Amino acid sequence: MFQIGRNIVAELRRIPDYRVVGRVTAVLGLLVEIGGVEGALSVGDRCKVKRRDGKAVICEVVGFRNERALLMPFGILDGIGIGCEVELGDTQPQVYPDESWLGRVVNAFGEPVDGKGPLSEGNRPYPIRNMPPSAHSRQRVAGKIDLGIRAMNTFLTCCRGQRMGIFAGSGVGKSSLLSMMTRHTTSDVSVVGLIGERGREAREFIEDDLGEEGLRRSVVVVATSDEPPLMRRQAAYMTMALSEYFRDVGRDVLCMMDSVTRFAMAQREISLSVGEPPASKGYTPTVFAELPRLLERAGPGGPGQGSITGLFTVLVDGDDHNEPISDAVRGILDGHVVLDRAIAEQGRYPAINILRSVSRTMPGCNNEQENQIVSRARQLLATYEDMAELIRLGAYRKGTDPKVDEAIHYFPLIEEFLKQRKTECTRLNEGYVELARRLDLLAEQPEEQTPANGQPAAQTEQAAQQPAAASPQQPAAAAEMPAARPAPPPSTGPKINRGPKVHSRSKRENGKDLNEAKRALRQDGNDAPGGASE
Ligand SMILES: Nc1ncnc2c1ncn2[C@@H]1O[C@H](COP(=O)(O)OP(=O)(O)OP(=O)(O)O)[C@@H](O)[C@H]1O
Ligand SMILES: [Mg+2]
């Protein structure tokens, strides 16, 4: 009650005693120049520019030139001309989120856009452009978060308060992966920012991907690609402000943004309009200053608060993972998930390239057995990847290297594990058990062996001990892992596509070791298929 009273007093203080009015002196592109009130304005302030028809367009101060203030609109500039009246608005835009916003869709101003009626406001203001909390006041990133995606949960485990980027070229499955995680996560609350995406996608995301169940514990902030850059940029800030509200009331928030690149593009449009010189690929220095200010707002909260786990998609321009925005974002975040077009083209979704993706909280958040399962799978994938070209061309002869034989055997099994339909969900512990089972690190667990205490059989530690318990002669699963396993018999061998048969080459290479085969292949270079028909 006391808090509400204090808020009312604070609000009353914010009501100005007088009206300050300026005039439009020029309009150029997206910019409105105003005179008469420059002394009363600073960058980030809001103004209302009155159109000729009497309606107002909300604008934000984005700079100053020749002692005039430069404004950009949150709407369209039609109907604004020289001499139009400009009234000063909020100096620090704020939003008053509330628990009842869960299940709702809002725009960059926090106004409802879902046709479900007005939103009730909370009693604590949250600045839309807040500063990230200081590093020493934050708790540490800890405790795994279940995202419901096998590949993520096991190979790229994400912890509460961690910030991860999902990097991919266009159409490789970023939004789909994000929507899967929103639907399947076990986190308390999701705040989803759809920034600069297509209008069609926003609706599909809310109705199909999120569904009623997902929406009930989410707030969605939408600014589609047709909206002005200020709206798109502010939608990203709004997403963070709403996440901060839920964090402060002790919730573990999953904050997702699709995409950070559109935020950067919006900032680029704004900066270029004001005349800021571009630095890299047209992106201005302000873009690179704003990115950490935005992304750092996600993370663990202070004592007694919840956390904001951030998942941010990054559109990788031209599939070049070293383009400036990808590079900058990768440096700020605590992990990156790389989606690969080549994998997507094979129809394996989510198209996560495990070997190129990293979660920086791993392996610290896993127990030893989980780490061993994952590193064993990674090692098999790496061995296969190293030899993939030779295997595909049929230039690798089975039996040459037991490690490669093993990788060939397990590769399709791991690939199958990584594949996940949109509607499918795998819980955190189930993922490790399933992966261990596929890698023959676990014996199949008969149903009657389910522990009598009712604990799920999926408890990795318990399950991993099952083989040892069942057969005392056998070493425990963990002890077995590092040992090289014998290649499986041909009948149980991999069902991989070895590509076209290369009989002549196979004969010629007969007796040579693997390195010679590799060298020969390199010499052939692009002529390899031709060589095959020799
Ligand atoms: N888990 C999945 N299962 C089946 N298909 C999928 C899956 N994930 C993605 N896809 C396919 O990939 C296509 C593109 O996915 P999506 O729209 O998520 O890509 P995007 O990277 O967000 O694209 P854009 O860069 O255009 O935003 C989808 O239309 C769908 O056909
Ligand atoms: Mg998308």
Automatic annotation (TrEMBL):
Residues 114-137, 447-534 are annotated as: Disordered. It catalyses: ATP + H2O + cellular proteinSide 1 = ADP + phosphate + cellular proteinSide 2. Residues 507-525 have a biased composition (Basic and acidic residues). It is found in: Cytoplasm. It is an enzyme of class 7 (translocase). GO terms for cellular component: bacterial-type flagellum; cytoplasm; type III protein secretion system complex. It comes from the Bacteria. Keywords: ATP synthesis, ATP-binding, Bacterial flagellum biogenesis, Bacterial flagellum protein export, Cytoplasm, Hydrogen ion transport, Ion transport, Nucleotide-binding, Protein transport, Translocase, Transport. GO terms for molecular function: ATP binding; ATP hydrolysis activity; protein-exporting ATPase activity; proton-transporting ATP synthase activity, rotational mechanism. Pfam families: ATP-synt_ab, ATP-synt_ab_N, T3SS_ATPase_C. Residues 160-344 form the AAA+ ATPase domain. The keyword Chaperone does not apply. Residues 455-484 have a biased composition (Low complexity). Its EC number is 7.1.2.2. Its main location: cytoplasm. InterPro entries: AAA+_ATPase, ATPase_a/bsu_AS, ATPase_alpha/beta_chains, ATPase_F1/V1/A1_a/bsu_N, ATPase_F1/V1/A1_a/bsu_nucl-bd, ATPase_T3SS_FliI/YscN, FliI_clade3, P-loop_NTPase. One of its GO terms (biological process) is bacterial-type flagellum organization. Belongs to the ATPase alpha/beta chains family. Probable catalytic subunit of a protein translocase for flagellum-specific export, or a proton translocase involved in local circuits at the flagellum. This is Flagellum-specific ATP synthase. It comes from Thalassospira profundimaris.
